[in-house]
Design goal:
Elements lengths: L3 E13 L4 E10 L2 E6 L5 E7 L4 E4 L1 E7 L9 H7 L2 E6 L4 H11 L4 E8 L12 H13 L4 E5 L7 H14 L2 E5 L10 H11 L4 E3 L13 H13 L4 E5 L7 E2 L2 E2 L2 E2 L2 H10 L5 H9 L4 E5 L4 E4 L1 H10 L5 E3 L5 H9 L11 E2 L3 E2 L6 H10 L5 H15 L16 E5 L4 E7 L2 E5 L2 E2 L5 E4 L4 H6 L3 E4 L13
Helix pairs in contact: 3-4, 5-6, 6-10
This protein binds zinc ion.
Organism: Acuticoccus sediminis
Protein name: Amidohydrolase
GO molecular function: allantoinase activity
Length: 471
């Protein structure tokens, strides 16, 4: 009797670098997992897709997104699904809001969260003691987070406080990412990024959005990008990602008449505006700062009078963006390799989610078309490596038994046309089919995630940010 599967994707060009597959294959999905990948699979399926002429890759893992209410918001789940993403790491939290928001607004992705360390919000001061960090990490893990995020570019800690956060996460095998910047060294640059590498003191660390330290403020951006790659090559315990969008993102919030984020102040300086709430308003009016707004079910960017109206209606508590990322370092950081043939920057991410730049496919596939990346390179940077960094052993590849996470790409239109997440169709031809979300967490957070009605994926401490295999 012929076998029956939940889903069959027939005749696609399967690209699965971990398993050495780069050829036309059928893919069968059963019970949430990959069942078979073979040249011809006999049998039937509840859902069959003819994907001939299309590329079939492991589901895209965007390891840097924002889905919390204060930065982009719940609409981001849908935006990620439309962009072909099946797994994402929220890089701010706070975790309580992320769990409740995912339970309410999730559409079926696997989502995780690192919870921010912010003076006056989650820790008392900019120089929290190791004991205070220890306590906050325990709360965050119990709440479902996989670790902590240092927001040095926006809300810096001292050097000692930053080092204490990284060391504490390292001691517990928890995840930690550091948007570089400290009270002593607040401005983004390659030197600031290297300070962050030094403060890690050999502990594992995720260095986010390397492109944001290479904006050409001191040298041509492409040279800063190469310098950043050379710095990171000296710190093998540090994993890195960059993004391809021209827009940055930062909180537009003001209190007592001044913007709260350091990033806002830098953008105002670059545009020649005062570091005041009035300066922000003028920058929005003039089209220098763009405001995130709901533009028909997804977040877009609006500016001018419309932008000011959105920003004011939100009481300034809304994300904003500015076009500060030059093209050369963005492209260089995605394609450059070190001498041993590895990528200079490990992963391709977006810093998107609720921020309108979910462009791994939109801006990444053009690099494939230009032969700057192979399809296998693309799958490595957008799925296999980020899954490995996150300790998600069942993601990033299509071996039988792996999670049924698949992204299908149309190389003519440079767009995702079909995704499966957890063995269930998530998106097809621009339509999202919402289903239950999964949430990756550590054993400490399993009960919280389950109690919220989410399906926990438990990642063992110490398997995240793994040591690099010897070359
Ligand atoms: Zn971010």
């Amino acid at each position: 009797m012929a076998e029956h599967f939940d889903a069959l994707l027939r005749g696609g060009h399967v690209v699965d670098p971990k398993n050495g597959i780069d050829q036309v294959m059928d893919v069968a999905v059963q019970d949430g997992r990959i069942a078979r990948v073979e040249p011809t699979i006999r049998g039937t399926a509840t859902m069959e897709h003819d994907v001939s002429g299309k590329v079939v890759m492991p589901g895209i893992v965007d390891m840097h997104v924002h889905l919390s209410e204060w930065m982009g918001g719940p609409i981001g789940h849908r935006m990620l699904a439309l962009a072909g993403v099946t797994t994402a790491l929220d890089m701010a939290g706070p975790i309580e809001g992320m769990v409740s928001s995912t339970a309410k607004h999730g559409v079926g992705l696997s989502v995780g969260c690192i919870s921010y360390v912010r003076p006056g919000h989650t820790v008392g001061s900019a120089s929290p003691s190791p004991g205070e960090v220890e306590d906050y990490l325990a709360v965050a893990l119990k709440g479902g987070a996989i670790g902590l995020k240092l927001l040095g570019g926006h809300f810096p800690l001292t050097q000692d406080g930053s080092a204490a956060v990284i060391a504490t996460c390292g001691a517990h095998g928890a995840y930690v990412a550091f948007h570089a910047g400290t009270l002593e060294t607040p401005n983004p640059s390659v030197a600031t990024m290297e300070e962050a590498c030094l403060l890690a003191d050999g502990n594992p660390l995720h260095m986010p959005h390397v492109n944001s330290y290479c904006r050409g403020f001191e040298k041509p951006g492409v040279i800063e990008g190469q310098e950043a790659i050379e710095v990171l090559a000296r710190y093998p315990a540090i994993w890195s990602e960059s993004y391809l969008a021209p827009f940055n993102g930062f909180p537009g919030s003001c209190s007592n008449g001044v913007p709260e984020s350091n990033a806002a102040r830098r953008v105002l300086t670059a545009g020649g505006y005062a570091h005041t709430q009035d300066g922000v308003e003028q920058a929005i009016t003039d089209g220098w700062i763009h405001v995130q707004a709901d533009v028909g079910g997804v977040v877009g960017l609006v500016t001018g009078a419309d932008g000011v109206a959105v920003w004011k209606a939100a009481g300034t508590m809304v994300g904003v963006s500015c076009m500060v990322n030059g093209p050369e370092p963005r492209i260089h950081l995605v394609t450059a390799r070190s001498k041993d043939g590895r990528f200079g920057i490990d992963a391709l991410a977006t810093d998107g989610g609720g921020l309108p730049r979910n462009d791994i496919v939109e801006r990444g596939l053009p690099l494939v078309r230009m032969n700057a990346l192979t399809l296998a390179d693309f799958a490595i940077k957008a799925s296999l490596t980020p899954a490995h960094i996150l300790g998600l052993a069942d993601k990033g590849h299509l071996a039988p038994g792996a999670d049924g996470d698949i992204t299908v790409l149309d190389m003519d239109r440079l767009t995702p046309v079909l995704t499966y997440a957890g063995g269930r169709r998530l998106m097809e031809d621009g339509t999202v089919y919402p289903g239950p979300s999964r949430f990756f967490t550590t054993p400490a957070g399993r009960d919280t995630i389950a109690a919220a009605g989410l399906d926990p994926i438990v990642v063992a401490p110490g398997t995240m940010l793994p040591a690099r295999a010897a070359a």
